Amino acid sequence: MRVIAGSAKGTRLAAVPEGARPRSDRGEVLKAEVGTYLGRSPRPADLVVLDPPYETPVGQVEQAMARVAAHGLRPAGTVVLTRPRRTSTLVIPVHFAVARRLEYGDSLVLVYREV
Q1: Under 8 Å CB-to-CB from 99, ≥6 apart: which residues?
Q2: Pairing mode, if any, of strands 2-6 and 28-31?
Q3: What is the pTM of this model?
Q4: What does the alpha-carbon distance between residue 30 and residue 49 come to, in Å, rounded to a whole number?
Q5: In terms of CATH, what superfamily is 2-114?
Q6: Contact 46, 1 (CB under 8 A)
């Protein structure tokens, strides 16, 4: 399993707990800016966590989602995206579906799956 924790271009990374390790020797947890990672690694991930700052423009988040869909996700992979609860509706890749929508205070967590 490959997990990428990152964000849209030019923004900070999602927090990956220090010492985070997969539960088996077959896994890998990476912490990288999504654009940088996709530019240097041909290996797709099973799970991508995007946690851009709330002020990140919607278009920039949509571009990051499109890049992940095109180059960074294995078939049937999952993308987790955090946004402010009162955000504009994103245009998502056509082969993604919202699997879960969770609200916590001002935060919105969207879980997308490839269909």
Answers
A1: 78, 111, 112, 113
A2: parallel
A3: 0.75
A4: 10
A5: Vaccinia Virus protein VP39 (3.40.50.150)
A6: yes
> pLDDT tens across 21-67, in order?
555 556 667 777 777 777 776 678 888 888 888 888 889 889 888 88
CA atoms 28, 97, 110, 82: torsion sign? positive
Task: Tally the C-alpha atoms within 13 A of residue 48's C-alpha that lie toward its C-beta.
Answer: 33
Backbone angles phi and psi of 67, in degrees to 5: -65, -40
Phi, psi (degrees; rounded to nearest 5) at 22 = -65, 165
List all residues 6 or more positions away from 112 whose beta carbon is below 8 Å from its beta carbon. Answer: 65, 78, 79, 80, 81, 92, 96, 97, 98, 99
Tokens of 110: 């969207």
